[in-house]
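1st attempt posting a full record on here, be nice pls
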Amino acid sequence: MRIARNLLLILLVVLLLPYLLTPLYRTGHPVSMLMAWRWLTGAPVSRQWIDFNAISPALPRSVVAAEDAKFCGHHGIDWGALRDAIDDAEDGEVTRGGSTITQQVAKNLFLWQSRSVVRKALEFPLAMWIDLVLPKQRILEIYLNIAELGPTGQFGAQAGSTYAFGHPASALSPREAALLAAILPNPVRRSARNPGPGVRRLAGTYMARAQALGLQRCWSENRAF
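the predicted structure (as tokens):
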């Protein structure tokens, strides 16, 4: 019984730790679980933190347009997109998925990459907690600094931009920003440096979406953006 209680206590600590750490991430330069794993295994990791206001405005707009069009309005979970993704999966259609940027931050900071029901069960309440305790701009800033954006361990906007285009994220053009957004979530198979027809097509779509009225309203109503 003592062993069982100790194991239960350890499990509770592990489950609660992300909720205790999240408010501390209002500042600092957090790293993702994937980055930490690559460091531990000796795999290359390149990440130079860049503050939100130093990033070309085209990149956060392109990423929101690509990954989470309702980012400004939802509270961590886009239930409508989730229902659509489930319906598409049931119909056998391939979709981009219903995960929000906040869910991806939760997964990348605290959970594991492979898909499972257990991971999703942990991810949902954690995403809502992150949305509650962190400002939208900070959530997006963290995402833009931990997302994998290159094929050989490039993480974050700065490393991804330098690898793909040879200049910092502050100098990204709208087209370049859309190309980086288009390689998410698989920068190993997709390339912003040498984009194929599919990536170029997606980039054009995301450039248009970034200028859509709904996203412009999102940005104007949230002055932090």
